[in-house]
Amino acid sequence: MSDEILSAKARLPMPDLLEKLGLGPVVANKARKCPLHDDKSPSFSVYQKEGKWGWKCHAHCGRR
After folding, report:
1. Which residues contact 64 (CB under 8 A, 6 or more apart)?
2. Residue 55: which of 4, 9, 2 has the closest Cα?
3. Sign of torsion, CA 31 29 45 58?
4. With a threshold of 0.85, does the pTM exceed it?
5. From the CB of residue 17, how many other CB atoms can be counted at a distance below 10 Å?
6. Contact assessment for residue 47 and residue 58, using Cβ atoms and an 8 Å cutoff
7. pLDDT (tens digit, 9 = 90+) per residue, 10-38?
């Protein structure tokens, strides 16, 4: 992962980071098309748990 992305992750909440990367506005706990695969319907969501941001693709391409 590039130093620029690591730096952005340290400074920005997940929804803001994804918007800065050009993936459009992201609202926590609201599904949208997954940026990691050719998604036909919304399957990607971000969430905050214990003060940390995570993401999950409900089409099973990944999570963090």
Report:
1. 54, 55, 56
2. 9
3. negative
4. no
5. 18
6. no
7. 777 777 777 777 766 666 667 888 888 88
